[in-house]
Write a structure and sequence with these properties.
The chain contains 6 helices and 48 strands. The longest helix is centred in the first third of the chain and has 15 residues. The protein starts with 7 loop residues before the first strand and ends with a strand. It has 674 residues and is mainly beta. The strands form 13 sheets. The protein has a 6-stranded mixed beta sheet with strand order 1-5-4-8-10-9, with helices on both faces. Strands 16, 18, 19, 21, 22 and 23 form a 6-stranded mixed beta sheet that branches. Strands 41, 43, 44, 46, 47 and 48 form a 6-stranded mixed beta sheet that branches.
Length: 674
């Protein structure tokens, strides 16, 4: 083998964990790399949002059915030979020790995901010490799109003689990026690199669609699809339920936005939508089928052992029922299902396999529960059924405080019970007014939050609304809602301006003061036209206001007071400021740049200060007598973009205005752009 082709190495990874794992191979196609990259930006920078311009660009450039890219199939791959052969080849590696360490790190990362983990004994890894450029490149418009010359990569691997079913490319590049087309490609980052590679491997090997949003709509044919379009897959183009997902996805586990905005995915989160997640049950089944194709069926035929824990025949349940099960398997359980009265009610693939039964639409009375546990080899274990009695149903619960609880103060501790993988956002309303809006970041089926909400004396309605992100990323889709009544024992607290009175004419220094009703304040903040002018924490909670710092005319005063119980009160007053006009202009000086200084045509900082005997109103930057920027900060620091300016001399001045309209100018500074 020529030196520049590198030396092939072969090695086998076995797991020391009791649950050994395995790996998949793929046979077909993927969206074009540009489309992948656009989505990649989404799930790395917050699954939710895409700009309108990005969506428009995608619709223009990437019609879906012209975009499917077949996986590179190698002539040396042998289906069904008992082993899935995965060959790594690198680009831009000068240090082979680093290359070998990266291969082992990315291999360990891939084997941390099911079903690869449990079928690792059917996988063999190889790597090639390559020094030939694979022509790795980034799209200038989308730097996170990292692709290689697939034909060149394929020819190098086939020429090496290494038995290969699928290739993986690692690029020695610290900047995040990758691609999941015909060959999975990833940067070698220490933080997200293995997760990015596993996601892209899911595309190229498992033929999995992305499960985040492309910002486009797709055709509806009531079929599930993989990247091999005519084969069942992990997205569904129709109205639920999907025939291909029967006995795999519960009715309320369909989430709108599976690649296309009008398609469905089978879980709120998965590795195909979010780094940090795992493959969901549908995706694991697809990957397992690819492993079967290349390596043959798993030799493991031992089914998991499973039993329902914490509930027994005759147990009484209510609200959101968190069903836990005791499960063991010789290789490891990959996913579990809860069946209620013979119907699939919930699936989970995340340890400790808590199955949340949302009972809001279930009839009260007796229900039969059983749990099914699956392993990566397709073996299924079924628990003994038990009968439970449902006394009240709910899809989301306020566990505490209880209905009609009497509260005091402002801090209200709440415990919510919900299906943790069913919503990603909740809002809190009191008496129909939203007071809290949060994205869910917890993993527990029950979570404690603290609501800081001062309530006036009397009853109030507390409402929790649980939602998921809408495919257009601009709104939320409500899924569940619940309400209780809270009774506040807090006494009413209020304030009113005692000085100055409403519509008073004021000038110079003015005393600000408020009177409190039913409770003394502990702090009062005063504002003029919405800008904080002072805070008083000592009785009588007054403040001296210098009206000369404002222009003559009408201004709105407001006060915000807080008492010892945490209750707040506000007051407002309109006043007419009428000060004698003074004639002394501001004094302006520019500290940098220096006069006659030579500077490159780049971003240039221009700083200095303006002072006035009363108050500076605002400051302007002038370049060659043209206003370029403005600030209300007397101690100014402008950033001037000189990249498009012509070479040569340019004049810099700063102009300041005071509240009486007087104008001050700095001395001219001339700089030379080179």
């Amino acid at each position: 083998m020529s030196a520049n082709r590198g030396k092939p190495r072969i090695w086998v990874v076995t797991s020391t964990d009791e649950s050994v794992g395995s790996l998949p191979v793929s046979m077909a196609s993927h969206l074009p790399i540009r489309a992948w990259c656009r989505g990649f930006l989404l799930y790395l920078e917050g699954r939710t949002m895409a700009t309108r311009s990005t969506r428009a660009w995608y619709r223009k450039v990437h019609p879906l059915f012209d975009a499917l890219e077949p996986r590179e199939l190698l002539s040396i791959g042998i289906p069904g030979d008992g082993v899935l052969d995965i060959t790594f080849i690198g680009d831009q590696y000068l240090d082979l020790n680093q290359w070998h360490a990266d291969v082992q790190r990315f291999t360990a990362g891939l084997l941390s995901y099911e079903p690869f983990k449990s079928r690792a004994d059917q996988i063999q890894f190889h790597d090639i010490d390559n020094t030939t450029s694979l022509e790795a490149r980034r799209d200038p418009a989308m730097p996170r799109l990292l692709s290689v010359n697939n034909s060149l990569v394929t020819s190098l691997v086939e020429a090496s003689g290494v038995r290969t079913d699928i290739i993986g490319v690692l690029v020695n590049d610290p900047e995040l990026g990758g691609a999941g087309g015909g060959i999975p490609v990833s940067y070698n980052g220490l933080d997200l690199g293995p997760q990015v590679f596993a996601h892209e491997f899911g595309h190229s090997f498992g033929r999995l669609f992305d499960e985040y949003l492309y910002g486009s709509t797709g055709p509806i044919d009531n079929q599930s699809h993989s990247l091999d379009w005519n084969k069942p897959g992990n997205v569904y183009a129709g109205s639920p339920p999907a025939a291909a997902w029967k006995d795999a996805v519960a009715p309320d586990e369909y989430f709108l936005g599976g690649g296309m905005d009008n398609w469905y995915r089978s879980s709120l989160r998965s590795l195909m939508s979010d780094l940090g997640s795992s493959f969901n049950a549908v995706s694991m089944n697809m990957i397992s089928e690819k492993i079967d194709y290349w390596a043959g069926p798993s030799p493991d035929h031992e089914a998991p052992q499973v039993s329902i824990a914490g509930l027994t025949n005759g147990s009484t349940v209510s609200g959101v029922v968190h069903v836990t099960a005791s499960m063991t398997d010789n290789r490891g359980v990959t996913d579990a299902q809860l069946w209620v009265d013979g119907q699939l009610a919930r699936t989970t693939w995340q340890a400790p396999f808590t199955l949340d039964w949302t009972t809001g639409h279930s009839a009260l009375g007796t229900h039969t529960l059983l749990v099914r546990a699956m392993d990566a080899s397709g073996n299924v274990g079924v628990s003994a059924p038990i009968d439970v009695y449902l006394t009240s149903g709910a899809d989301i619960q306020i566990v505490s405080p209880a209905n009609n609880t009497q509260i005091t103060g402002t801090l209200i501790p709440m415990t919510l019970s919900l299906w943790r993988n069913g919503v990603d956002h909740f809002s809190v309303q009191i008496d129909g007014k939203q007071v809290c809006d949060l994205n869910l970041g917890f993993d527990s089926s029950e979570t404690a939050v603290f609501l800081n909400a001062p309530l006036a004396e009397g009853p109030h309605t507390l409402t929790i609304i649980a939602s998921v992100s809408n495919p257009d990323s601009a709104h939320l889709l409500e899924r569940y809602r619940t309400s209780i009544t809270l009774v506040s024992a807090n006494k009413t607290f209020g304030i009113a301006f005692s000085s100055p009175r409403q519509n008073a004419t004021v000038s110079g220094l003015v005393n600000l003061a408020v009177n409190a009703t039913l409770g003394k304040p502990t702090r009062v903040q005063y504002y003029a036209d919405g800008v904080l002018i002072g805070t008083s924490t000592k009785a009588p909670f007054g403040w001296k206001w210098d009206t000369r710092k404002l222009k003559n005319g009408t201004h709105k005063l407001s006060a915000l007071a807080r008492n010892a119980a945490g209750l707040t009160a506000t007051a407002e007053s309109l006043v007419l400021v009428k000060n004698p006009l003074e004639r002394k202009p501001p004094v302006v000086s520019v500290a940098e740049p220096r006069n006659s200084q030579k500077l490159k045509r780049a971003l240039i900082r221009i700083s200095g200060k303006a002072t006035d005997n009363v108050a500076v109103s605002f400051v302007e930057l002038l370049i060659d007598n043209q206003v370029k920027s403005m600030t209300k900060t007397p101690k100014f620091s402008f950033i001037w973009d000189a990249t498009t300016m012509t070479k040569g001399k340019h004049r810099i001045r700063v102009r300041a205005y005071d509240t009486s309209g007087n104008v001050g100018l700095s001395p001219v500074k001339t700089i030379q752009l080179v």
